[in-house]
Amino acid sequence: MTTRAAIPVPATASATSRPSAGLRGFAWGVVAYNVLVIVWGAAVRATGSGAGCGDHWPLCNGNVVLHHPGVATLIEFAHRASSGVALLAVIALTFWIFRTTPRYHAARFWSMASLLLTLNEALLGALLVLLGLVAHNQSGARAVYFGLHFTNTMLLLATLALTAHFLSRRLGFMRGSTEFRAPLLASVGLLATLATGVMGSLAALGDTLYPARDLWAAIAEDFSSHSSWLLRIRWIHPALAFVAGAFLLWLIIRNLPGGNAPGNRSLALVLLGLLALQYTLGFTDVALLAPVWLQLAHLFVADLLWITLVVLAVRTSIVPIGCTFGTCGFRSKKTAE
Predict the structure, then answer these.
(1) How many helices (H) and strands (E) does the chain have?
(2) Which of 72, 102, 104, 262 could cross-link 49 (Cys pair, CB 3.0–4.6 Å)?
(3) What transmembrane ranges does the database entry give (predicted)?
């Protein structure tokens, strides 16, 4: 099914409206930096360093300057500092976009969404600390807030990726200049992938709070009525991973032939490689009882897969009116020559 936006394309929606290379590079740089911040945040959780600054926020143990900090304090403080830089980067990106792009440019919407989600990210992080839902806290409230925090993180990463993506488009970056192809299927697939990530974050939280002695003990805990509910829901993560994987394979197969969209084919191949690597890391993570380094690697690849998936899904489902990406939407091999 193909639907078109009802808003007419403004006269400024031409290829000459494409933002500068500096802005495009900065946008993708902000995406990359946020991935590193997210992975470091997982290190805070996996090492039990969430209480490294006590129950103070944004100050660390009530101080601006650290005095003889321990390892946990350094880990937590580094995450807070890097998160603060991320907020400043998103503010700078949004300001730059609104100063240099036309009024109906899609990047404006996504950059504002990114800014709001960044502020919400800070709020959720602060609540985790102020409510004491960190370190070895095993309450149900921690799992709820942690799930909300991770959901917000994934949505933030998606909006940042879409901001950079629409800044990089040659056409189809203005409101009213695109049409939608199979948007419902793409939306369901993205939601399934998001749900997989959220359940994975809860599984990782369970691994941190209730470390197992060996693999068979871990499997037994998943089905024991005496185990924490966090352990008894761990099976949902791999189950959803296979459901989401079916959508990813559909998207990959749809774009592998290439045709007039060689850029989509390249992204599909990258997504296929990341999907295979992610499944491998997932199985290895279970077999080795979730060591910290492997949890971080698993999350890092998950973030790369999510970014690639969001961009490829949008390139496939939101296209310039009357165009194919290989001829007028993106730089193709022929255009580059």
Answers:
(1) 11, 3
(2) 72
(3) 21-42, 77-98, 110-131, 143-163, 184-206, 235-253, 265-284, 304-330
